[in-house]
Design a protein that fits this description.
Structural class: mainly alpha
Number of helices: 12
Largest sheet: none
CATH topology: Rhopdopsin 7-helix transmembrane proteins
Number of domains: 1
Order of helices and strands: HHHHHHHHHHHH
Radius of gyration: 25 Å
CATH architecture: Up-down Bundle
Distance between the termini: 89 Å
């Protein structure tokens, strides 16, 4: 089959406009929220609980990715022409992988800690320490690095020297990359997803049946469960599904086959890339659900921020009767 007519519709719109605009939003919002979250955690370093160590590492994984976003924004605004050299291109994509699978890893660990603390509180009481959290965090970073390093071995620049910085690899190596991607989709995403769903499924049953857990505590636990499932289903699952489908489409292209669904899968893949980047802006919500001090600080900030508007509304409501009476008096003459 002739593949010269295998054209992807709306390619420029999604890559150069929508994706870059979404990256700008994620960079600004994610940077502000993560800096505030990490600063709050470090401010109470001596009171840092076991689970907060995992949350701190989650924030560091987000920061690692967020600091590379300005370069990707320039890249897509420059019509997908990478001007920072291939080594830095590989480093940028490597940081994305560290953030992606580091976030999944730490969220899974947080789910496991919640499960043990709620379902088996007496068994783990006094046995889980800050040292355990540090060791687990180190193991997660080592595992994620081992998973991401092979990605840097694949070429990231196109053969026709257009200056592209592939998030996967070029056409020549795309079939090998597909096998790599499928293996780490199973290990890095599917297994953690099953563990997270299993942990919070059991936690939900225990909490809903319990008569000793307070209502506000139940709400906090269920909110965190919904948030984690939202992150997995909205940010992580679509990305892994459509990344592999897009890679398979490119493999077919190397065999001179143009799938009829090529354009739709490409657009879905670009949309999923935007969604997966949102995890860096949504992860700070986890801070609020596992740290009471930060939740109180956020409520205070929102309250302080709403004060000027309340004063303005109050002043308007107090002056409106006066102006109305003056208007009536004026009309009587």
């Amino acid at each position: 089959m002739n593949t010269t007519n295998c054209v992807t519709r709306h390619k420029d719109l999604f890559e150069h406009k929508i994706l870059s605009a979404l990256y700008i939003f994620v960079f600004v919002v994610g940077l502000l929220l993560n800096v505030w979250g990490i600063k709050s955690l470090l401010h109470n370093w001596k009171k840092l609980r076991i689970i907060n160590i995992l949350v701190l590492n989650l924030g560091l994984a987000d920061m690692l990715y967020l600091l590379t976003l300005p370069f990707l924004i320039v890249y897509y605004l420059n019509e997908s022409k990478w001007i920072f050299g291939e080594p830095f291109c590989k480093m940028t994509r490597f940081c994305f992988k560290l953030n992606l699978y580091g976030s999944i890893g730490f969220l899974t660990c947080i789910s496991a800690y919640r499960y043990l603390g709620i379902v088996h509180p007496m068994r783990v009481k006094g046995r889980l320490t800050s040292t355990h959290s540090v060791v687990i965090s180190v193991l997660v970073w080592i595992s994620v690095s081992a998973q991401s390093i092979p990605d840097m071995m694949f070429p990231k620049h196109s053969e026709n020297m257009t200056g592209q910085c592939y998030d996967t690899t070029d056409l020549k190596n795309v079939e090998k990359y597909l096998h790599y991607s499928l293996s780490w989709t199973f290990i890095g995403f599917f297994i953690p997803f099953v563990v997270t769903v299993g942990c919070y499924g059991h936690v939900t049953l225990v909490v809903c049946r319990s008569k000793t857990v307070k209502k506000n505590r139940k709400q906090q636990i269920l909110k965190l469960m919904v948030l984690l499932l939202l992150l997995f289903s909205l940010c992580y699952a679509p990305y892994h599904v459509f990344r592999n489908l897009n890679l398979y489409s490119r493999v077919q292209f190397t065999r001179e086959i143009c799938p009829t669904w090529n354009s739709e899968v490409f657009i879905a893949h670009q949309a999923s890339r935007g969604l997966v980047s949102l995890n860096s802006a949504l992860n700070p919500l986890v801070y609020l659900n596992v740290n009471k001090d930060m939740s109180l600080q956020m409520k205070q900030l929102l309250y302080q921020g709403s004060q000027p508007f309340r004063r303005l509304l109050k002043s308007r409501s107090s002056t409106s009767p006066v102006s109305q009476s003056e208007e009536e008096a004026a009309s009587s003459f």
